[in-house]
Design a protein that fits this description.
Layout (H helix, E strand, L loop, with lengths): L5 H4 L5 E3 L3 E7 L8 E7 L4 E4 L5 E8 L2 E5 L5 E4 L4 E3 L6 E5 L5 E8 L19
Antiparallel strand pairs: 1-2, 2-3, 3-10, 4-9, 5-8, 5-10, 6-7, 6-9
Bound molecules: (2~{S})-4-acetamido-2-azanyl-butanoic acid.
């Protein structure tokens, strides 16, 4: 059994901080669960264009509010606490945190993230074996 606390991850190499987001990787590929789990902060006012071509991602919002735009359809969905979205078609999207609030989200990736990924020019994570 694995038991881990967010406070043990903050400030380590599993705490990945960028201009728009801060991802605390709770479970990674090496944990052999078949998925990774992240506690991620989308920073106030951030607007992130992403396209997880190689991963499926589900995201559950636990703090803040914002919106997600589906770049295939132009549909914009409001995000509030208690909302989950699943990028079941590797959907290219823009994620926005509203002004005056960050968003805190629990993200699950399949296949699992290794911990070393950065977004490429398309907003995708490259697979590392
Ligand atoms: C929600 C989202 O896609 N945020 C970008 C960071 C990513 N989820 C991660 O690595 O935690």
């Amino acid at each position: 059994m694995l038991v881990r606390k967010l406070e043990d991850i903050i400030g380590t190499d599993k705490d990945v901080d960028t201009d728009g987001w801060n991802s605390r990787r709770l479970l990674l590929k090496d944990d052999n669960m078949g998925y990774s789990v992240h506690d991620t902060i989308i920073k106030e006012g951030a607007e992130l264009t992403m396209w997880y071509k190689h991963h499926l991602e589900a995201v559950y919002l636990i703090e803040g509010e914002g919106e997600i735009e589906d770049l295939a359809t132009g549909d914009v969905h409001g995000l509030a606490v208690g909302t989950i979205y699943a990028l079941d078609k590797h959907d290219r999207h823009i994620l926005r945190a509203n002004k005056g609030t960050h968003m805190r989200m629990v993200c699950v990736f399949n296949p699992p993230v290794t911990g070393q990924e950065v977004h490429d020019e398309d907003g995708a994570y490259i697979i590392h074996d």
